[in-house]
Write a structure and sequence with these properties.
Chain B: One of its GO terms (molecular function) is metal ion binding. The complex is a heterotrimer of chains A (275), B (554) and C (203). Chain A is mainly α and 275 residues long. Helices cover 54% and strands 5% of the residues of chain A. Chain A contains nine helices and four strands. A two-stranded antiparallel sheet of chain A has the order 1-2. In chain A, strands 3-4 form a two-stranded antiparallel sheet. In chain A, helix 4 crosses helix 6 and helix 7 runs antiparallel to helix 9. Helix content of chain B is 65%, strand content 0%. In chain B, helix 3 runs antiparallel to helix 4, helix 4 packs antiparallel against helix 5 and helix 13 packs antiparallel against helix 14. Chain B is globular, with a radius of gyration of 23 Å. Classes of the chains: A mainly alpha (275), B mainly alpha (554), C mainly alpha (203). At the A-B interface, strand 1, helix 1 and helix 2 of A face helix 4, helix 5 and helix 15 of B.
Chain lengths: 275, 554, 203
């Protein structure tokens, strides 16, 4: 391996390599095109001459391509002007610390764990939110309508009374929105978890909900003005924590699998097979 | 058929023979160098135009340059810098580097490649012919004066008499066709001519980003060509595409132009990202962080950039829902761009940084592009855009993106690959001077423009009244412009001096890991005596460190 | 990971095969056709935007003849079939079969152009529709004109490639003929879109 290792099939010539022959036809063709263009604002004579040049150039170009003249045998340059073979370097290199090569965890949670966690967390969160609706006396549909108001613009005009009434559209929109978000957050968490240090329930149950709640709190005025006006923040944060803890528990309890089984090139052998 | 000879006849004088060799060349490396020389030539032209603009704005009520000439100057400056400086320079880098990086002897269609260059060059010539036609012969400049995006109805026969707008249309049209041939060629080369063993997810990131870039060119340039042909038909055949009096729409031109114009911003930025992704790991002595996410982010940028064009048109008065959509899409594009910035930062983190000139430019790029990106997010917010659109704030924003972003990276690329192309190192001392003058001058020039813009100074005014608080910021800008001018002067001196008596470079002066450093400097016309075989993303690392090769990890 | 070993102990894996399924010329042609598609899309979009925006006639419904368009389409679509037969004949190494079918393709292409010429003649002299008359004229002539220009270019290419094949100037593995047929199919596909947008929607 002192040289860049050779091709399986040897080069056709030892002393020369076939390369395309230099030709002026491309330049001539381009000048013809340029003249054709110049003719438009000046005088059509230029365009006609340009067209003639274009045809001549095309004729010459393809005429040359069809013959043996298309290629020329370039002799190899003198050995002293060739590239030196690349030798193993004895320079000290950074030992492969994390980040020197991107090192991924060897064992990860399967995607299904993230999905399951997200759905379970979402279910619990929905229960907490419904409890809030019941306990606060605003009714079962209140939290769902608040969520749906993010998408349904006319809800912005509604009063608190209307928000507690049943609406099929709001129910559908709310359920879809809630399921999709829970699923995505769960998936994201499942993928991210193995790369985070220690205690997964801490990340899922404390840090995640805190970050998420803070983010929602600051963006809510823009995303969902109705909700930001009517929501009860303690209950909202409580439901976030319920989601996070349940999701974290479900993901952690799943069986970890080898990362290789997730990668798209899974047919390759595991590279530590020879160790 | 004398025209097709190899140019080795002994009778001709060496200079003529050399020139003949360059004119008839189909070697991707020579064409790449031709592209870069063309770009540097137009850089000087466009730079002088910018300096004239800055001189005119030095004091209020200046009479150095009249309003007509001023309009021509900013039109020519914009058109030149975008179509005839950044585009050929990125084509040049791609032409020179892609075949070397993927380990093949030439591009897929070498003759078509030459055609692309000559079309680009003649396109530039056509644009500048306008100075020598019509009124110009009587002592008046007759260059186009409609701005680089040439909004209708300024371009209609009634408002643009004479041929100046035609030269703008035809010059960019012809060079645009050249750019298309370049893109076709590049895609075919990257997809089909990689060295044995090099999978598509193992190409250097520069190659990957050029692939996405070429794809964007294929989608974005033809609509511009079509729009320009429509405009020509309006002007010459009496068609009514952009003729509002006959029911045509001036807004249609804006849509068509920006459908090209916004992807064009990314067409100019992606190669810069690619260059940075090559320079940063080598001078941090680390693997690029997150190759896959980098590649995916590039593809995402390419895709999203096709759906954001109307954020250039918030002040037109489109439908509110359209505004909201394009604003949201523009925010979205910040995500993959942010991923890239984080990946580069993560590559720097914990590395053993070597602050050679290419790395200086790469770090300069990171900072300047970040500022440009952040003001971009501000401008994507519709209400903010309504306030500062078409002010100097906007001018500052896109110069931070295109100059602080693209051009800084391209300059860094010049320092990084000059040793490969010539066999000589560029002087580090002059390089440092070049960088710091450019960096200081750049921020002095474009930083104050943010303030002038927020204070209400509109773009494209040829002069302004005193007492609006703009004088000081404009004078800072002008000083910055001349500092940058000196910086570029040092760059050109550096190029000439180093070419004549630079330190010998050797095959691999930076101890880098991609295939272009495996061949000699400068490479022979056939690139590699033997086509290399590749097993990982860093084939040279594998050879230099056989005890710990990359292919074990990929 | 295993500890760093000495050079000889690490088996170097054979390079992975990374052949792309298409040849460079095929990728080049496909890319070129993509850019052409983007070009024609722009023209079609312009046509659709201005459809029905005219204050004065003639309108598509008044001036276009669906019957003529159907006949014209039959010529062009038929030529896609004949060029496919020509390619099959070429694969079967039958030079005469190839020439006959190519001749048929060229004839159908010329008939299409003649049909377009008749249509334009009628539009210009009977309906008074010119490119400057109204928006319909502007967009119609631009779109149809560029398509007809591509057909003309295609006919030149077909003629040249047939002569080259007959003269034996192309090697058996040359891809030029196949690529020209790709181009011809593309021109046909564009016509199907035009037929739908201009003739079917308009009349």
């Amino acid at each position: 391996m002192s040289d860049l290792s050779a091709n399986p099939d040897p080069p056709p010539h030892d002393e020369a390599i076939a390369m395309p022959r230099p030709t002026a036809w491309p330049m001539v063709l381009a000048s013809g095109v340029g003249l054709m263009a110049i003719g438009i604002p000046t005088n059509l004579i230029f365009s006609i001459v340009g067209l003639g040049i274009v045809f001549t150039a095309l004729f010459g170009w393809f005429g040359q391509l069809l013959t043996d003249e298309a290629e020329v045998e370039e002799p190899l340059v003198a050995p002293e002007r060739r590239a030196r073979p690349i030798r193993p370097s004895h320079k000290r290199v950074l030992s492969p610390t994390p980040g020197q090569r991107l090192e991924l965890p060897e064992k990860v949670h399967p995607y299904s764990a993230g999905v399951k966690g997200g759905l379970a967390g979402g279910a619990v969160m929905a229960i907490v939110a419904t409890l809030y609706g019941l306990f606060s006396g605003r009714g079962l549909w209140y939290p769902i309508n608040l969520l749906a108001a993010m998408i349904l613009p006319h809800f912005a005009d509604d009063t608190a009374v209307e928000l507690s009434q049943f609406s099929l559209t709001a129910l559908l929109v709310g359920v879809v929105l809630h399921t999709v978000t829970s699923l995505l957050v769960g998936l994201f968490f499942g993928v991210l978890l193995p790369t985070l240090p220690s205690s997964p329930v801490f990340w899922g149950g404390v840090v995640g909900p805190l970050l998420w709640s803070a983010g929602i709190y600051s963006f809510m005025g823009v995303l969902n003005p109705v909700m930001s006006d009517y929501v009860s923040w303690p209950w909202f944060i409580a439901s976030q924590f319920a989601f996070g803890i349940v999701m974290g528990l479900v993901v952690v309890r799943s069986e970890k699998i080898s990362a290789l089984r997730l990668s798209p090139t899974s047919e390759e052998e595991p590279h530590d097979a020879n160790s | 058929m004398a025209i097709a000879e190899t140019g080795q006849s002994s009778a001709a004088s060496p200079l003529v023979t050399q020139l003949h060799g360059w004119v008839t060349t189909v070697d991707h490396k020579r064409i790449g160098i031709l592209y870069i020389l063309m770009s540097l030539f137009f850089l000087v032209v466009g730079g002088v135009e910018a300096l004239l603009i800055r001189l005119q704005l030095w004091v209020p009520n200046n009479t150095l340059i009249g309003p007509d000439t001023f309009n021509q100057l900013f039109t020519m400056h914009g058109t030149t810098m975008i179509f005839f400086v950044v585009m050929p320079m990125l084509s040049g880098f791609a032409n020179y580097l892609v075949p070397l990086m993927i380990g093949c002897r030439d591009v897929a269609f070498p003759r078509l490649n030459a055609l692309g260059f000559w079309l680009a060059l003649f396109g530039g010539c056509i644009l500048y012919t306008s100075y020598f036609t019509g009124d110009a012969l009587y002592g008046l400049g007759s260059a186009p004066d409609v701005g680089w995006f040439a909004y209708a109805p300024l371009t209609s026969p009634a408002y643009a008499r004479g041929g100046s707008v035609d030269y703008w249309i035809l010059g960019t049209l012809v060079s645009g066709v050249g750019t298309l041939t370049f893109a076709v060629n590049l895609i075919a080369t990257i997809l089909t001519m990689r060295a044995p063993g090099m999978k598509l997810n193992q190409v250097p990131l520069f190659v990957w980003m050029m692939l996405v870039d070429a794809g964007l060119i294929i989608v974005a340039f033809p609509p511009l060509t079509a729009a320009q042909i429509m405009l020509l038909l309006d002007r010459y055949a009496g068609a009514h595409f952009f003729d509002t009096q006959a029911g045509g729409s001036a807004i249609l031109w804006q849509h068509l132009f920006w459908f090209f114009g916004h992807p064009e911003v990314y067409i100019m930025a992606l190669p810069a990202f690619g260059i940075i992704s090559e320079i940063v790991p080598v001078f941090s002595r680390k693997v690029i962080f997150g190759y896959a996410s980098m590649a995916a982010a590039t593809a995402a940028i390419g895709f999203i950039s096709l759906g954001v064009w109307a954020h250039h048109m918030f002040t037109v008065g489109l439908d509110d829902r359209l505004d909201a959509f394009f604003s949201a899409a523009s925010f979205l594009i910040a995500v993959p761009t942010g991923i890239k910035i984080f990946n580069w930062t993560a590559t720097l983190y914990g590395g053993r940084l070597q602050l050679r000139t290419p790395m200086l430019f790469a770090l300069g790029f990171l900072g300047m592009f970040l500022i440009g990106g952040l003001t971009g997010i501000m401008l994507a917010t519709v209400p903010v855009d309504w306030q500062v659109s078409d002010s100097y704030f906007l001018v500052a924003h896109f110069h931070y993106v295109l100059f602080g972003g693209s051009l800084f990276a391209l300059m860094g690329g010049c320092y990084y690959w000059f040793p490969k192309a010539t066999g000589k190192m560029l002087s580090e001392t002059l390089g440092a001077w070049h960088f710091w003058l450019l960096f200081v001058g750049f921020n002095l020039l474009f930083g104050p423009m943010h303030i002038a813009g927020i204070m209400g100074m509109p773009r494209r005014v040829y002069t302004y009244e005193a007492g609006q608080g703009w004088d000081f910021w404009n004078q800072l800008s002008t000083i910055g412009a001349f500092i940058m001018g000196i910086g570029f002067l040092i760059f050109f001196i550096n190029l000439v001096l180093s070419l004549r008596s630079g330190q010998k470079a050797g095959d691999d002066p930076w101890d880098a890991w991609t295939l272009e450093w495996a061949t000699s400097s400068p490479p022979a016309s056939y690139n590699f005596e033997q086509i290399p075989t590749v097993r990982s993303r860093r084939p040279l690392w594998d050879l230099k460190h056989p005890e710990d090769p990359d292919w074990k990890y990929e | 990971m295993s500890k760093p070993n000495v050079d000889e102990e690490i088996p170097i894996p054979p390079p992975v095969e990374s052949e792309f399924p298409l040849s460079p010329a095929q990728v080049g042609m496909a890319t070129f056709l993509c850019s052409e598609a983007a070009f024609f899309s722009t023209l079609v979009v312009a046509y659709l935007i201005y459809l029905g925006e005219d204050q004065t006639g003639p309108t598509p419904a008044e001036s276009l003849s669906l019957t003529r368009a159907v006949i014209n389409s039959a010529f062009l679509l038929g030529s896609s079939g004949t060029i496919m037969l020509a390619m099959n004949a070429r694969k079967a190494k039958s030079l005469n079969g190839f020439s006959v079918w190519m001749f048929g393709t060229i004839t159908l292409g010329v008939l299409f152009l003649v049909g377009t010429a008749y249509e334009w003649e009628e539009l210009i002299y009977q309906d008074g529709l010119t490119i400057g008359r109204n928006l319909f004229g502007t967009t119609f002539y631009t779109l149809i004109g560029f398509h007809a220009f591509h057909v003309t270019l295609g006919l030149v290419l077909l003629t040249v490639i047939t002569f080259l094949e007959r003269a034996g100037r192309l090697s058996a593995k040359s891809e030029a003929t196949e690529l020209v047929s790709w181009y011809w199919h593309f021109v046909d596909a564009v016509w199907i879109v035009i037929f739908g947008v201009v003739y079917w929607m308009g009349t």
